[in-house]
Amino acid sequence: MALTHLPTELLEAIVEYTVPEGLESTALTCKQFHAICRPFIKPTTRDLRDWLHDFAYYADDFQWTNDIRTAFDLINRIAQEPLLARYIRHADFSSDSRHTKWWGDMPRCLPAEFYCEAAVRELLADSPHLQRAALDWQQYHANIRKDLETTHYSQHAAAFLMTLLPNLESMTLAKLWIPLAATDQLIRSLTNHANEPRLPNITPSLAQLTRIEVLTSTGSHFSRVVLGGVVPFLALPRLQSLHGISCTNHIRTADNPTHSDPSNDTNIGQALTSIDLVACCIDDIVIGHLLKHTPRLRKLQFSYATRRHPDPQEWDICKFLAAIECQVGSHLEELSISIRHLQESIPPGKTSMLGFQRLRKLELPIEVVLSNISGARGKTPAKSAGDGFSTHEDDPYISDLVPVSVHQLSLISNDGSNEHAKAIELIFRDFAARKGFTLPALQEIQLSCPNDADDAYKNQCNKLLAECEKTDVVWNHPLRCLHSSIKLPV
Description:
The protein is α/β, with parallel strands linked by helices. The protein has helices spanning about 10-15, 25, 30-35, 45-50, 70-80, 100, 115-125, 130, 135-150, 155-160, 180-195, 285-290, 315-330, 365-375, 390-400, 420-425, 430-440, 455-470, and strands at about 55, 90, 170, 210-215, 225, 240-245, 245-250, 275-280, 300-305, 335-340, 360-365, 410, 445, 475.
């Protein structure tokens, strides 16, 4: 029996399930469905889609209708018009409460006529996610009100908003997002529900999310994002990409004295294929926990920075690389490690990258080489150019730094110092003669050279360029590095 032969009443019921995602497509199917869909197509449908498809908090002094500055404002609108939540596909929540907090002349809340307290309370009372998380809705509502009365940002409202967005595909968390016991509990319940078997026509909130971005709140006392507050989202079934800026280790808070070990949850990171952590300050233990259950991870980018960290610790880059190798060495294809800001010296150590079996692109700071040299000689990293290196003595340790599978190798020097020049001399000594049996897959080398690099460093770069010309390896000047006096092939 053809679908169009069904009674009109049944077709109208079917069309209701297509609102809003598939309404317009259904209306274009045939004249009969167009006529049935017409009552559901309001003049504001396209306006709503344009406004909410790529959502961001917005403040307009002259137009209050679409003026949503906080998570609670958006919850209020959804409580009155539940359909709005299904239009949101991509959301930037980073500026949650920003306008109310930083722009003191602006009103903190919408006018009273735009609020419906009864609808909000009913939305919380009927929330299956609060019930599933064993959170009392009245207490949760009281926590939201308390947040809004004492500060402009409500973590409880920001977390509850996540339970209302079934079609969200990518989002940026609020810059003020913080780990709290109740909100972490709610997010964990939400991700568990998203991983449960369900009927095809039922889409739990956040089940479609593929990318999450975390930004720091620069200029405030929330100077770094606690990575532990983001981890619960990583259990979502379709989350493929994590981008974080200025993240730090798990920490203790008054509300949440201990963070659970994310490695205990086997759903954490199961779908992740790409992780990009910029200007972060995390150690080998945390990166190991984060990567423990990431069998699909193909790309990892990490830059280390201690700036604005209240208590920077010594960063053992060798242990850091070992933790990555232990967890994802069998399947990672691209790895980038760099240093943006470092207050403490890097301790000596020994790094072996031979466990990376499929690595094709590798980017490392030259400090890794220095750490291995110091580890081999049993001393702290050299501080002056006068501390020479014994190339024959140290070579066995350096040869383990680049896996044989690597096609593209990048080495980063932030200062182009003499000691970095010694490191380049050591790792690429007799490169043309040894390339065939030590790095058979290598096709491209990128080596940074700052404008103010020492002459010794520039000379080593030119020597390496001459060695590359004897092989089939291409020398490419990295775009992110400053131009220098290095000779480059025309």
